Amino acid sequence: MKLNKRIRTSAVAGIGALSMVALAGCGAADTGSSSGSDQVTITVPSWVGARANAEVAKVIMEQELDVKVKAQTMDEPLAWDALNNGKADAIMEDWDGQPEKQKLYLDQKKTVVPGGELGVVGHIGWFVPKYYADKHPEVKTYEGLNKLAKDFKTSESGGKGEFLGAAPSYTSYDEPLIKNHKLNFKVKETGNEAAQLKEIQQKYKNKEPFITYWWEPQWLNNDIDLVEVKLPEYKEGCNEPAAKTECAYANTPLKKFLNKDFAEENSDAAKFIKNFKWTTEQQNEVAKLIAKDKMSGEAAAKKWVKENKDTWEAWLPKK
Hints:
Layout: E1 39-44, H1 48-64, E2 68-73, H2 76-85, E3 90-94, H3 99-108, E4 112-129, H4 130-135, H5 145-148, E5 161-164, H6 174-180, E6 185-188, H7 193-205, E7 211-216, E8 226-229, E9 251-259, H8 260-264, H9 268-275, H10 280-291, H11 297-307, H12 309-312
Parallel strand pairs: 1-2, 1-3, 5-6, 5-7
Antiparallel strand pairs: 3-9, 4-7, 4-8, 4-9
Helix pairs in contact: 1-10, 1-11, 10-11
């Protein structure tokens, strides 16, 4: 069974150039007529799926709406601050990882407004390779992990099983989950998404056992077959406070958010971003072109745009 579904906050620098530009201090959108802003700034978490969103949006807005787009990679906490103070116009992929900032800017200050769902459902969990799960089916539940911990030992794990963790800036409850369920595992921080993918690819190629924090959407899921380890069912609030977490991660419909002033312009750019909605498979297609096929973000987006006119035409503002 392959992953079909992924919370995430910020990101790790260095996924590649995406027209990285400093945000202007006087505000992001330079508003012209009601039909459009002549410059729009999109914040971009540095995981490749989020980059795919921004690259496709950038190509279409520049080609079809004559709007200049700046894309700025930044951690999600900073992205929310930028939306609040007008230095950015849109977040195109939010994983509900900033509840305090959402409450402050959405509910209290009302400087940020919802921009609709992206169309992609995010899911995070613990996963092992299918070739290992087929031989050791007890690994499919967290209760069976301690019996198998020895299979995951490495020279760096101090006698415990090694758990491949996420980038430090990603939302993760793995440390408390391991502690609270008394699991004989030690989290290894992989540093960033690229390093984690590289390690997983190598272990998978060598048919080694591994257990990892993993997510969907993720283009690599088309190339590897993983099985999820069942954790106690997620229930609202079960990971609050984080240190007490014993439950699984939530499924998260990924959302867009806009600076309020930008949204209220009712410009073509704002309408387009609100209308932008695609599938996990479509996002993964562009992400794979960038991450695996080593195309530039612009080239990958242009290829997808050329081949999927029927999809993106529906995102254009109605005349």
